[in-house]
């Protein structure tokens, strides 16, 4: 779910850091006891003894604290807080400059302060490993081609859609939510990414035909991050006779977090297990079809979105520094919930998304899905991984389960489960999977 989505007014941390206008030379650090009194970690109440297929990982038990003892709640981190979108106009222009100028000044806070800020609705981007983003002026490497988009007209997409399976998604999400938590600095968060990597590897070995492998280089990466345990997973399909180097990216975040305590149980079925299985099944369907892209196609599973867009920031900044050209990036963050009594819709979020790509996204929904889109916005000080790509100067867009006020109320709690309500819909997830396929194929066919 978007970082800082539980918006509340008058948070002391926001007033302290942003109100004082602190800069890099000042350390905005409040004692942990003053900002986030943490109860003793409850030794496992559920999840003990779970076996996750063939993944070898320490089980949560009274003898194993899942990495809690290693986590330094007092460690300083450099962040820039999101603006209050309701007070900042549309902020939807071409995105990157508007976002950079609207963020708070960079301030130092502790890991505990970050958790409290997230819990109370003050979203941020953690730039500790990217201090060049402290300036109001963007780095020189953040300059990219502005793409235009062809009307959707693929003959391949309709052939792939019948290959998608809700049963496959149910099985994957059942396993993915069995990890005690996917918190990015926990042992089980690390293990969950390893399971995801192995799942993708198995799909690649099973479904990538010899003719596909003759035409496309398929690369599967565990992207290690220096600041936390969990790894991002990146899959690249690079045609050997590519007509262009412009990359199409389909993304979701693979971590979860319980706001009561980051090491508590956090199944994260909707946030963002649903987005993860959305793009995982899109990848499987594309492999099964034998589709050969004309330009590079990638699937990204980001670690540590809940920690301030950490994984996607590392990756997007690396791409920018290497001068990579991205035709378009889409993020799926929560795709399962259909609020009772309301029509089923696709939410197209526009805060700092690229207007042209967002309009293209709407055209894909009109062409390939049997439900309508609704344009919507994050309130308060919320954000998600697509904004990392916006900040890096790329064109990004964002598809979510519905309008903001109709979204699942259970994320960041023990209740973010598959079985919590009939409103959790695998049929809805499958529609987003069709959209992911359409985006991936339409943009990589030329």
From TrEMBL:
Its cofactor is Zn(2+). Residues 233-427 form the Peptidase M28 domain. SUPFAM superfamilies: Zn-dependent exopeptidases. Its EC number is 3.4.-.-. Residues 1-34 form the signal peptide. The keyword Zinc applies. It holds the Pfam family Peptidase_M28. GO terms for molecular function: aminopeptidase activity; metal ion binding; metalloexopeptidase activity. It is an enzyme of class 3 (hydrolase). The keyword Cytoplasm does not apply. Keywords: Aminopeptidase, Hydrolase, Metal-binding, Protease, Signal, Zinc. One of its GO terms (biological process) is proteolysis. Belongs to the peptidase M28 family. M28E subfamily. PANTHER family: AMINOPEPTIDASE YDR415C-RELATED, METALLOPEPTIDASE M28 FAMILY MEMBER. This is Peptide hydrolase. It comes from Collybiopsis confluens.
């Amino acid at each position: 779910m978007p970082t800082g989505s539980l918006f509340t007014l008058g948070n002391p941390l926001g007033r302290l850091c942003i109100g004082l206008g602190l800069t890099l030379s000042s350390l905005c650090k409040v004692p942990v006891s003053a900002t986030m009194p943490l109860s003793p970690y409850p030794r496992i109440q559920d999840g003990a003894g779970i076996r996750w297929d063939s993944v070898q990982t320490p089980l949560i038990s009274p003898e194993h604290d899942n990495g809690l003892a290693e986590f330094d709640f007092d460690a300083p981190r450099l962040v820039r807080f999101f603006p209050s979108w309701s007070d900042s106009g549309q902020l939807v222009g071409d995105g990157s400059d508007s976002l950079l100028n609207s963020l708070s000044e960079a301030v130092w806070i502790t890991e505990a302060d970050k958790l409290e800020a997230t819990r109370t609705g003050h979203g941020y981007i953690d730039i500790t490993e990217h201090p060049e983003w402290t300036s109001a002026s963007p780095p020189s490497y953040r300059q990219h081609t502005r793409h235009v988009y062809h009307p959707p007209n693929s003959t391949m997409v309709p052939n792939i859609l019948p290959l998608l399976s809700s049963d496959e998604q149910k099985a994957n999400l059942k396993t993915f939510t069995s990890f005690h938590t996917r918190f990015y600095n926990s042992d089980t968060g690390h293990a969950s990414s390893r399971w995801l990597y192995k799942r993708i590897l198995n799909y690649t070995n099973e479904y990538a035909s010899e003719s596909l492998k003759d035409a496309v280089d398929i690369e599967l990466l565990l992207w290690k991050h220096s600041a936390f345990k969990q790894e991002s997973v990146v899959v690249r399909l690079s045609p050997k006779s590519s007509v262009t180097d412009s990359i199409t990216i389909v993304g979701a975040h693979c971590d979860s977090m319980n706001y009561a305590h980051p090491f508590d149980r956090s199944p994260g079925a909707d946030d963002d297990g649903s987005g993860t299985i959305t793009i995982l099944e899109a990848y499987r369907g594309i492999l099964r079809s034998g589709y050969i892209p004309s330009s590079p196609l990638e699937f990204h599973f980001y670690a540590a979105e809940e920690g301030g867009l950490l994984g996607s920031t590392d990756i997007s900044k690396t791409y920018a520094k290497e001068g990579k050209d991205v035709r378009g990036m889409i993020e799926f963050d929560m795709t399962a919930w259909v609020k009772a009594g309301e029509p089923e819709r696709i939410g197209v979020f526009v805060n700092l998304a690229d207007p042209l790509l967002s309009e293209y996204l709407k055209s894909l929904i009109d062409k390939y899905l049997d439900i309508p889109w609704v344009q919507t916005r994050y309130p308060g000080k919320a954000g998600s991984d697509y904004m990392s790509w916006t900040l890096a100067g790329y064109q990004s867009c964002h598809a979510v389960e519905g309008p903001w006020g109709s979204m699942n109320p259970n994320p960041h709690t023990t209740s973010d489960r598959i079985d919590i309500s009939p409103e959790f819909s695998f049929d809805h997830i499958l529609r987003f999977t069709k959209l992911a396929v359409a985006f991936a194929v339409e943009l990589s066919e030329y």
